[in-house]
Amino acid sequence: MNFEHVIENNSKTLNIKKHRLCIFCRTPLSGKEKSKEHIFPKWLQKHLRIEKTHLYQTLFRTNGGTENNRKYTFNKHVSGLVCRDCNNGWMNRLEGKAKPLLIPLLNGDRGHIEQEQCEIIAKWLYKTSLTLHSASIKEKIIPIGHYKYLYEKNQIPRGVFIAIAPINVIKEKDDLYWIENGDWTRVTKEAPTEIIKNYLKNAYKISMRAGKLSWRIIYLPRENRPAINFFEFPNDCVKYIHPCKEKKINWNTKIAFEKLGELDSSLMYR
User: Fold this and answer.
1) pLDDT at position 241
2) DSSP element (H, E) containing 176
């Protein structure tokens, strides 16, 4: 997979306290414009049987301490930063297109995914990940422009790469799990680690799992890019659906990751 064609010119990240605007269309959120968008749609919660399952969010500090512990159920996990027009409009239409394509992947069915289907799935995964991040207790690392770009252009910003992979859910405790900006540290000895670490401060990565489907979203900015190459740790189950250059993707669930962390850390650099 070639990671070279990456650009984005808006590095300002979302500040929830200062921006009481819709995260996508930037409409002021007051009165009837306010909405409560479920981070994970009701159909997905029902399919995974997690509506009443408790969800825990904990912010881990580098000194080993924790703060901002939150506990609620999945059906109460919502974002108040999406307006009614977005919720009932383009997001609802995307949901209708993506649902019949996602269910076979969630169930672990084998088959093929057409290129145009990959783009629908990729947009849904990206939209869901953006909405999740907006409601996260973690530091906001995704630029505002990425939310706006998806809304205005109906496209995923350049520089964003989305991979999916089957996962063996027997080895995991929950039916839905995610890692935000996980470990980037896997690197060969020759790589200039400090330069890479500084570069990756402007990048982001979100890995998620639902049922027997896992996905990873990464953004790599062109600006100040060091002379390094990113490569995928060898595993035939990783399939890139955005950008997707294949007319048809073979979805073989016999080869799968055991844990979400394997997909999250499988992207390396040298």
Assistant:
1) 96
2) strand 176-180
